[in-house]
Amino acid sequence: MSALVQIMSVDFRSCHHRTIPSDLLGQVPSTQPGSRTQNPRPAGAAATRHAAMPAAAALRATEPLLLPSGLSLSPRLKLLLTFFRADLTVRPLDEWQLKSALLAFLRDPPLSLPLLPDSDLSVHRLPDLQKRRREEPVASGVLHVRDLSFLRPRKGDGEADGMTAEQEEEKYIEWRSSLVEKLEGIELNLEGVKFRMTVEIPPSDDFRVMKKSWENFYSSELLNSRNPVRKIAKRPDTIVVRGVPSRWFAEIRVSSKPSTLVTHTIFSALGKIRTLNIANDDELEAKEDVSTKELISGLNCKVWVQFENYDDFHDAMKALCGRSLEKEGSRLKVDYDVTWDREGFFRIAQYEPAHSRLGERDASASVHGRKKHYTSRIESDHRKRFRD
């Protein structure tokens, strides 16, 4: 294993302290005078740690999840919009007019989304409209519905008091499907010019679609095994989160680069972590800044998190799907992209050949988008801090 992987792929299995189960807290014997047995950990601290672990498992579909470092996961619905011409006109497209007409449609009955601010709907005209064919889209947009409080059960309601988390999730999915069905295929008439709109839920925002994808992947892998006698059913254990601000995962007043310790602390709220890796998300930044053709490196980061068991992976993926990352004191709402690792990032990194620092600096190859020179900079920063 190279020095590069040894630094960033930190094994945190030794970091988890042994806690006393809640049902045995009352059976811990007291320390007798003269005994060499150390005082046990306070029952309250052990119970608090034990109760904090299943927070992601008990999370409801419309509830936010508080994370360390002032971060939180807020539920929201994200829809991808695509606009096509519905008539033979070739008049120029007015983005502001299209957005205003769509906002009016969303806020009026039968949809009735009065708490939808203008900033939660974005419409962008696609380039080279005159060169596009009739069946090709002319504009795209993103709609966010962040206020989902009307879907939460109200206190005092007899029916809501007995609603389970599964029933609340089914209610949310039913409402989401109804909204998509009402928006799919509508026509907007802008001063005699008609546009047809299609709606799509991003795969990374639909947990059921995500779960179906890894079940189908490992099922096909099992069926395609060359040795049917030694077939072993596999399940994923690693999530990949990209497009999150690097400063939110950095140590305050120390560096603007993401810290392994801070990142581990944040994702530990979702489950027990085996190892993780952090890298610059240069590919996403290059795609977003394609208009200026300039690469702004270091703004976003990409995180691989491997959990110790499948249940923690499952609950973490469910908590991350369909939510935005927010930080206390900031108005920014980050719509990250989350998926599961189907290529075995840590398994490949384990057998990665060692490279010299000069080779890492000059090499242009990367492993799944992870730039090696970024990891070497993390290493130098840590050594400098420890020498100080």
UniProtKB/TrEMBL annotation:
<feature type="compositionally biased region" description="Polar residues">
    <location>
        <begin position="28"/>
        <end position="39"/>
    </location>
</feature>
<dbReference type="InterPro" id="IPR056852">
    <property type="entry name" value="AK17A/B"/>
</dbReference>
<protein>
    <recommendedName>
        <fullName>A-kinase anchor protein 17A</fullName>
    </recommendedName>
</protein>
<dbReference type="Pfam" id="PF25015">
    <property type="entry name" value="RBD_AKAP-17A"/>
</dbReference>
<feature type="compositionally biased region" description="Low complexity">
    <location>
        <begin position="40"/>
        <end position="51"/>
    </location>
</feature>
<feature type="region of interest" description="Disordered">
    <location>
        <begin position="359"/>
        <end position="388"/>
    </location>
</feature>
<feature type="compositionally biased region" description="Basic and acidic residues">
    <location>
        <begin position="376"/>
        <end position="388"/>
    </location>
</feature>
<feature type="region of interest" description="Disordered">
    <location>
        <begin position="23"/>
        <end position="51"/>
    </location>
</feature>
